[in-house]
Structures are given as C-alpha cells and as structure tokens.
C-alpha cells in the first residue's frame, strides 16, 4: 500500500512487534562429481522458531520482482532462469514457515480501476528511467571505445523490461505454468508437502494477490466449521498486509517479510550487482569475481499481529466514551485513519505526512472526539460519515499550524545543510569539470493546467517526465535541452566513479550537443543515479510495495542534489495566507470560490475513503470506480459529509489486454498483441493521447525526486474499450486464451486426506459436477472443486522449462489438481473474534516478548508448560502459549499467574491505581493458587516457582514494598507444595541483561532456601 515509511514507523513506535525469524540452513555433501551439493531441508521437522503454523499465504509479486531484477547481484540471463530464482526464493520462505495444512500462492491479476491509475504512473516512469539508463550506458560505451577499451560492448545491454510483470503478458503466462510444474514437483518429492493443500491463484484470476488471499480468509472464516485457532503467516512486501491482517480479526497472524533495513548501513556499492567500486549507472552486469566476497542473504522478520493488537489495546483506550469499548471496532477505526496518510487509491491530504507524525495527530483527534460521537467511525467496512466528520473537522483546525511548522522545520534543515555542505554542483578545478551542465527551463509563476477527469493532451508526443511549471508546449519546445541534460547526467555519473579526479572537458558530449543547440547560460544541476538518491532513513522506507518503484525519474528542469532532493520554487506556499486559493488555482485550474467544483472533489474523495474501507473488509465494491483527480482537497473542504449519498456499481474487471493497454507505456508495447501495439504510437490511433512519452511531474511540495506526481492523462474507459473491441477478431487463439479469465487451482499429493475427493472428479462415471469439500472432515479447506482439463492423474507432467537440465518432466505424477472456487461468503465479514478462540493474553497490555521457554517436570499430570514473559520499560505482560490445559485446578493457577504479574504493570501505567489496590489483587491471586495447589500435584509447584521468578524479575521501582511482600510470601506457599513432590525445573531468564543481573542473585538465594526446605522435608519423612 502507498503508505510511505509505515513499516518503519510501526516498528519504531511499537518495537516488539518485530521478531527475528530463525532459518535453518541446508546441509552440504559431496556430489557424484566431487562438488558440494545442498542437502534439502526437511520441513516435516519442528519449526525452528518454536511455533507451528497452519497456513502460509504468499503474495507472489513480492517474490517475482526481487527475483527478476534483484539488488546486489546481476539479474538472471533468461526468463527461464528467472523462474528458477522464483522457485528458490519461494522454497526458502516455505522452509522458514513450514505450513502444516494450507499453502496459497497468489499472483496479482487484473486490478480494480482505482489501482490502475497508480500502476500506470509507475510503469510510465519505470519505462522512462530504463530508457535514460540505457542511453547513459551507451554513452559510456562510446567513451570506452575512444579510450581503446575493447571487449566490453557485450556487457552493456538493454535492461530487462520489468513492466512485463503485468497480467496478460507472455512472461506471466510462463510464470503460471512454471509454478504449476514446481508445485507438482514438490508434491512428488518433498515429504514436508505430503499433507498440504496448495492453491495457486495466478495472474489470470482477477484481483490483487493480497486481496485474493484476504478474500479467501474472510470466506473461510464465515464457514461454521472454521477453526479460529489456526495460525496464519502471510508473506509480502506491501505495507498494507499489516492493515489487511488486522482487518481479518484473526488474532493468530504474522506478516513475514525481508528485513530490508538490515544491510542499509553496510552496503554502499552498486545495488544492481552488489559489487564495490561503481554505482548502478555504470554497472555492466559483469559476473562477480571468484575471490569476491560472497553475497549475504537478507534476513527475514515477523511482524507479530497479536503483539500489535496488544499495543493498540493500550493506545486506543479512551475514557469517557458513551458506549462500551470494543477493541475490534477500535482497531478498524485505526486502520481507517491510516488510509488518510496514504494508500494505493487516493492521494493523501496535503496536511498529512507520516514523518511529521500524521498518524499520531489523527489518533489524538480520534481519542479527543470519540466521546462526542454516537459510536465508532467504521462499522464492519462501512464508514459512518457523521462520525468521520469529527475527524476531518479536528484536522481542519490544525491544518494551518501543520503547514507553518512544516515550513519551519524545512527552513531549519536547509540552514543546517548550508552550514555543513558546499554546493559542489558548481565546483570546478582548473581545466577539469566535476559536473555536467545543461539547459534549465526557468520556473513559471503559475503551475501547469491540471489534466483533470477524462481529459487528455491529444497529439503530444513527448519523450520523458518533465519537472517544471510550464505546459506541454514548453516541453516540446525544449526537447533539445532535455537531450542535453540526459547526456550531462551520464558525464556527471562518470565523474563519481573517478572519485574526484574529474573528466576532461575536451570533446565532451555536452559540448558537442551545445554546438548544435544554442544553450541558455543558466546552468542545471547534476542528475545522480538511483543508488545515490538520499539517506536510508528516507528512501529505504519506500520499499513497502512489491512493484518496482522507479528510484528516480529524471526531473531535468529541476536541480537534483546528491541526496536526491529537488530544488525548485514552491509557488503554492502552504505556509502563507491565501494558500487555498493558490492550491486550487494551480492544481485544479479553478478558483476557490468555485464551491460546486470543490464539492465534487470532496464527494469523490469521500467515495474513495468508503471504497477503500469496503475493499479491505468486504471485497471490491466496484471494479470501475476511481478517483478522477491527481490531488486531494484540504481537510477544511470536508463539510456536511452526513448528507452525501455513497453508492457503487459493482461492474466487471478489465480483461488482461485491456489493463495492459491502460497501464503500459508505448515503450513496453512489445508485451501486447501486434493488432494493439500500433494504437500506442501511430498518429492515426484514436487513443494516441493516452500514451505520452513526455509528461509533467509536479513535485507538489515534496523534496525527493521520486515523490513527484506524474500528471498523466486518465484513461477514458469507453474510448479504450471501443478501440480494442474493433480488433479482437485479429487475435490468435493463444492471445485469446491469455486475454481470458482463469480459475484458482488446488493441488494435493496422493497422501493427502483430500486426494480421494479430487479423484472423484476424474472417475469414468463422474458426472463432472462440482464437488463441495467436507469441512467437517477437512476443516482447513472449504469451497467447491471442478475437474481441471489439464490434469491427467498418474500421467507424466511435462515441464515448461525443458531448456534447464534440472527441470525435467515428472513421470507418473503422484499429485492431482482441480479448479477451485472459494467458499461462499455466508455472512458479511464482521469485526469480531470468533467463538471458540483460545485466548493467549490478547489485549492485556503492551509487550516485550521473551523466548518461549519449556518447563519440564518429572512428576505430575502436565508434562510441559510453555511460558512467555516479557518486560519493556514500565509495561509488562505475560502470555501463556500452547498450554495443554487439564481439567481441575490448573486453570486457576494459570489465571493466578496472570493476576500477579499484570497488575504490577497496570499500576505503573494507570495513576488512579494504588499500592493498596495492587496488594489486594496480588493477595487474591495467591489465594487462588493456594486453593489450587492444595487440590493437585507437583505441577503447581512448578508454576509457583514461575510466579516467584517473574515477580523477582519485575523491575518495579515504585513498588518495592509490595514486591518484597510477594517475594516473601511465594516461597512459603511453595513449601506446602513441596511436601507433595520435588520437581526438576528448567527455566531461563528474560533476554534483558540488567534484569538478568538483578535476578540471578535473588534467584540463587531463593533456590538455596527452597533446597534447604526440601532437605528438611526429606529428613523429616
């Protein structure tokens, strides 16, 4: 989701939601040829992370992108090699999680129209970046030839077009068939897969990958036989996976992702091949030398949703509300507030920037206004507009101050920067220049006319994204200067490689170009390549989406500094009076007094908020709806929201080729059938204006080059579809197939419980009707099955990757597949925890989680107890995980354990609580335990020692008296239990050094005293 820096913000505010993933490395042994070969990991063994998971969901676009154009190493040479990289990466993720019941691989299919606008912007900018990079490499090649360097021409090749990762392309077709083959291969060869139900939802199935996954979870959740205690893990790079996971209200949920910040501070080389000594602009894709340092795999991390829920339970508590507090509804409101800061479907409000504390600002408004509302802002995926009005009103009151403070911060930062750095872009040394120079188009006082809804710029055949304040006429007029600046960028990049030694100005391509063009004496800034855009604290945070975001589109009419910031004149000046007038005049081309237009913009934005919330909670409400403006209104413009009528027409998704024509630039036309390609470039095309090669990029008050708004014309759906439908009869049979919608496919091995059900579909006497899965017998699955025409049980499975020696046919295929339909949505998704859920401390207090430690006992009815205790600052909580509860008093003991520890945390957090109240609760808890251990055997002794240990570990400075009382009482109670048995206990200290040091001495004393009591008891007996 388009929420810049959301993951980093969450991990800093709630640090214990992030957990490291333990990963088992494969072993090695000599192969037949003497070379070392990997020993496959046996995923049927226990998970090294100490917890077993039932379901794993893979948002495959988050795997495909880094495998096809990786950072830190050269990309695979062929698309077949890319498939192998996808297999390896997917296998690595599955080996980490080791799902026991269900695995789903979901690839992005055709997206809703609301998402296509963002995809279009990304792909246009990505194509232009690739073009400029290729030109720079060609220029460098020419320079090498002049210097007599030979044999390097082959290393400089045109980059692979990542825009092929879009539904309907031949690449995505190959990906789907390759994944089907690989799944069959794993089901035939990997014992850890034998009981798995595997679902593949490829790009032919409409919907974004992560939303197809969530649609399945919501539907499965509505089944009466759904197990609410199933443990889920979802992998992906999108930040919205966090929001989507919360929206399921399935508390046993984790988000898995690469730790993208792990190597930020260490790596300063080329991010394309991973080698030092050059940057990406000069990368020739050469193989790493044998003696080069091997690449390190990025570690993985969990974002623990249960822990985040507990943080939010503390954060969202609001006193004085006129209705009962409901954590699930409050979480929904929190998710809704995040949408204001950013999402893939709407531009965020001008006053909201996550790095300025926008989420905290919205949360303060929500908590302040909640007592004045009639209920929560959201209701099971529906926005209560009257309550949402309170949020917008509160933000409107703060808007002026936010803009002024933003300007003050920027001015301070700029002043500090001027004090510590010099303007090296103008530095020259003798006859050696360090920076290329190019024509700069001076800014105009008024911004360009905005391309509004369904408007376009017909006839504009331009060549790149331009950051300026003029219009398209200025762009066309200055093509020569643009070309000159491109060459200047290549010159300046070569300077960086020379590490300050400079590049001679003689015969420079810039000078040659300037002989042909009468250049303006005004100088431009150097354009730096993508890996030097800025510090990691800013740029690296933008990795939250699985699609490749172009690192820098060349804003040639702006000065781009070494840190990736863009120097330009902000003519809106939000910090000065009259900013609303200037904003609407420059961004929308209307006057502020045009209240009808502003109301239309606000109506469209409110529709967008309702659309996004429904999309996250109930599924896509409309395939056709989209926000028809490039900019958002101000919070002050939202008035009388309760009078708005919000309705959506469901509609149908675009066909794959229709989406391709809607999002791809002309540079990627080879991914389309030939009858459609000419529509992007031919002057006679009726939709030529949809595909400008030049387009304006408005920085819109932002600093970084990649943050600008690409002012592309919105696609007119009717014009597009009319142009395509005229040519559908020219498609080949293969192209017709690629342009058709597909179906989900379910795979199982012949060892799986579901195999007999699938086999019925292929019996000779089968009536070919759909078969419904018996959820009472197979609770991990629900839905219906139909025969897969490509499946022949027991036959040879033919490989689509015959060119690769390790990807051969599978003789006597033991797997079976079928078309799979998700279960029916029996009732609308509701924001509740389901009945039957075994609570494990959800919603107690915020957590600092320690390792899951086993306490093993020699005697007694319960043989193993897993205790997870945690401490951070002033807030503490205890989780009891996977405790096989017995009948009898054990429950009382466990509850007592929680009652002892939790009040100590609450008394530190809630001032109204007193030491006396705490003491009563502690004594009550101990009384419960005394009753319990009088009834049962030695297990209570173990738990009492755990209580003692946890109490000693509490760093409750303000509660020293109470702490000593508990410490003194616990051993006395334990002495009574020790009369029954003497258990052997293994319990490790918390992972906090200061607490460990404090605890060791005290524990040694207590253990010694207990040992003395044991000895006395033994002597007496």
Automatic annotation (TrEMBL):
Biological-process GO terms, alphabetical: DNA-templated transcription termination; mRNA processing; nuclear-transcribed mRNA catabolic process; rRNA processing
What InterPro entries is this protein classified in? 5_3_exoribonuclease, Xrn1_helical, Xrn1_N, Xrn2/3/4, Znf_CCHC
Give the Basic and acidic residues compositional bias ranges. Answer: 126-145, 510-540
- Where are the coiled-coil regions? none
Keyword Membrane attributed: yes
One Gene Ontology term, aspect cellular component: nucleus
**PROSITE patterns xref list:** ZF_CCHC
Quote the Gene3D superfamilies the UniProt record gives: 1.25.40.1050, 3.40.50.12390
Query: Can you give the residue ranges of the CCHC-type domain?
Result: 270-284
Question: What spans are recorded as compositionally biased (Polar residues)?
Answer: 498-509
Query: Per the record's keyword annotation, is Ion transport included, yes or no?
Result: no
E.C. no? 3.1.13.-
Q: Which Pfam families match?
A: XRN_M, XRN_N
Query: Locations of Acidic residues compositional bias?
Result: 541-550
Major subcellular location class: nucleus
Where in or outside the cell?
A: Nucleus
Q: How would you summarize the oligomeric state and partners of this protein?
A: Interacts with RAI1; the interaction is direct, stabilizes RAT1 protein structure and may stimulate its exoribonuclease activity. The interaction also stimulates RAI1 pyrophosphohydrolase activity, probably by recruiting it to mRNA substrates.
Q: Which family does it belong to?
A: Belongs to the 5'-3' exonuclease family. XRN2/RAT1 subfamily.
Q: What does this protein do?
A: Possesses 5'->3' exoribonuclease activity. Required for the processing of nuclear mRNA and rRNA precursors. May promote the termination of transcription by RNA polymerase II. Essential for vegetative cell growth and chromosome segregation.
UniProt-recorded name of the protein = 5'-3' exoribonuclease
Question: Corresponding gene?
Answer: RAT1
């Amino acid at each position: 989701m388009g929420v810049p820096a959301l993951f980093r913000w969450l991990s800093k505010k709630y640090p214990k939601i992030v957990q490291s993933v333990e990963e088992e490395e494969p072993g090695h042994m000599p192969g037949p040829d003497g070379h070392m070969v990997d020993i496959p990991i046996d995923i049927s063994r226990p998970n090294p992370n100490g917890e077993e998971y039932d379901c794993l969901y893979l948002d495959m676009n988050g795997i495909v992108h880094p495998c096809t154009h990786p950072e830190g190493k050269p990309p695979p040479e062929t698309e077949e090699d890319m498939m192998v990289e996808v297999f390896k990466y997917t296998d690595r993720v599955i080996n980490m999680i080791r799902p026991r019941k269900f695995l789903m691989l979901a690839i992005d299919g055709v997206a809703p129209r609301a998402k296509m606008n963002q995809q279009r912007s990304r792909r246009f900018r990505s194509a232009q970046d690739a073009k400029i990079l290729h030109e720079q490499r060609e220029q460098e090649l020419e320079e090498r030839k002049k210097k007599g360097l030979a044999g390097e021409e082959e290393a400089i090749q045109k980059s692979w077009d990542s825009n092929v990762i879009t539904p309907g392309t031949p690449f995505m077709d190959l990906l789907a068939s390759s994944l089907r083959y690989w799944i069959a291969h794993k089901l035939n060869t990997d014992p850890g897969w034998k009981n798995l139900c595997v679902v593949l939802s490829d790009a032919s199935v409409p919907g974004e990958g992560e939303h197809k996954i969530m649609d399945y979870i919501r539907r499965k959740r509505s089944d009466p036989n759904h197990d609410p205690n199933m443990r889920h893990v979802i992998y992906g790079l999108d930040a919205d996976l966090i929001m989507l996971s919360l929206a399921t209200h399935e508390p046993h949920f984790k988000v898995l992702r690469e730790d993208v910040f792990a190597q930020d501070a260490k790596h300063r080389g080329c991010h394309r091949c991973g080698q030092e000594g050059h940057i990406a602009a000069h990368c020739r894709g050469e193989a790493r030398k044998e003696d080069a340092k091997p690449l390190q795999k990025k570690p993985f991390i969990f974002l623990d949703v249960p822990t985040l829920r507990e943080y939010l339970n503390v954060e969202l508590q609001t006193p004085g509300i006129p209705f009962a507090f409901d954590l699930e509804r409050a979480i929904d409101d929190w998710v809704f507030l995040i949408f204001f800061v950013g999402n893939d479907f709407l531009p965020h409000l001008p006053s909201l920037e996550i790095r300025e504390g926008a989420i905290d600002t919205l949360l303060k408004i929500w908590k302040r206004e909640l007592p004045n509302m009639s209920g929560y802002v959201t209701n099971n995926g529906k926005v209560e507009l009257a309550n949402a009005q309170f949020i917008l009103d509160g933000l409107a009151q703060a808007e002026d101050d936010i803009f002024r403070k933003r300007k003050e911060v920027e001015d301070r930062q700029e002043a500090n920067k001027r004090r510590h750095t010099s303007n090296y872009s103008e530095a020259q040394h003798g006859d050696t220049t360090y920076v290329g120079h190019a024509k700069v188009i001076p800014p105009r006082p008024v911004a360009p006319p905005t391309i509004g809804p369904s408007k376009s710029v017909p006839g504009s055949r331009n060549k790149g994204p331009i950051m300026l304040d003029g219009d398209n006429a200025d762009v066309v007029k200055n093509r020569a200067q643009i070309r000159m600046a491109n060459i200047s960028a290549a010159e300046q990049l070569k300077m960086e490689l020379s590490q300050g030694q400079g590049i001679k100005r003689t015969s420079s391509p810039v000078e040659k170009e300037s002989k042909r063009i009468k250049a303006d004496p005004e100088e431009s800034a150097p354009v730096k390549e993508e890996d030097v855009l800025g510090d990691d604290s800013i740029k690296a945070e933008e990795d939250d989406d699985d699609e490749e975001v172009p690192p820098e589109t060349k804003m040639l009419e702006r000065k781009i500094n070494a840190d990736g910031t863009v120097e330009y004149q902000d003519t809106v000046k939000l910090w000065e009076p009259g900013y609303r007038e200037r904003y609407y005049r420059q961004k929308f081309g209307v006057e502020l007094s045009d209240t009808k237009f502003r109301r239309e913009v606000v109506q469209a934005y409110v529709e967008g908020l309702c659309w996004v919330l429904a999309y996250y909670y109930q599924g896509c409400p409309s395939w056709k709806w989209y926000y028809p403006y490039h900019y958002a209104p101000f919070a002050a413009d939202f008035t009388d929201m309760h009078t708005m009528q919000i309705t959506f027409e469901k509609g149908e998704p675009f066909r794959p080729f229709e989406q391709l024509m809607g999002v791809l630039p002309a540079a990627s036309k080879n991914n389309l059938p030939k009858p459609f390609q000419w529509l992007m470039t031919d002057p006679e095309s009726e939709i030529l204006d949809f595909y400008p090669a030049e387009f304006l990029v408005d920085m819109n008050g932002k600093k970084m080059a990649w943050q600008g708004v690409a002012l592309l014309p919105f696609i007119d759906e009717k014009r597009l579809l009319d142009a395509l439908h005229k040519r559908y009869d020219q498609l080949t049979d293969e192209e017709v197939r690629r342009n058709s919608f597909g179906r989900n496919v379910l795979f199982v091995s012949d060892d799986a419980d579901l195999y007999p059900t699938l086999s019925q579909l292929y019996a000779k006497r089968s009536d070919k009707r759909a078969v419904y899965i018996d959820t009472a017998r197979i609770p991990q699955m629900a839905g219906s099955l139909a025969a897969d025409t490509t499946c022949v049980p027991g036959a040879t499975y033919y490989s689509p990757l015959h060119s690769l020696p390790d990807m051969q046919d599978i003789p006597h295929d033991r797997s079976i597949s079928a078309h799979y339909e998700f279960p029916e949505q029996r009732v609308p998704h509701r924001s509740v925890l389901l009945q039957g859920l075994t609570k494990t401390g959800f919603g107690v207090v915020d957590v600092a989680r320690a390792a899951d430690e086993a306490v093993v006992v020699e005697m007694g009815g319960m043989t193993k107890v897993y205790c997870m205790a945690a401490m951070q600052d002033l807030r503490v909580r205890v989780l009891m995980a996977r405790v096989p509860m017995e009948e009898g008093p054990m429950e009382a003991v466990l509850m007592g354990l929680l009652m002892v520890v939790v009040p100590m945390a609450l008394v530190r957090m809630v001032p109204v609580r007193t030491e006396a109240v705490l003491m009563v609760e502690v004594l009550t808890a101990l009384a419960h335990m005394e009753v319990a251990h009088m009834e049962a055997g030695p297990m209570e002794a173990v738990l009492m020692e755990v209580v003692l240990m946890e109490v000693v570990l509490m760093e409750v400075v303000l509660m020293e008296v109470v702490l000593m009382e508990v410490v003194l009482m616990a051993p006395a109670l334990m002495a009574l239990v020790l009369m029954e048995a003497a258990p052997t206990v293994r319990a490790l200290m918390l992972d906090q050094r200061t607490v460990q040091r404090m605890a060791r001495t005290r524990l040694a004393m207590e253990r010694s005293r207990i040992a003395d009591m044991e000895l006395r008891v033994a002597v007496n007996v």
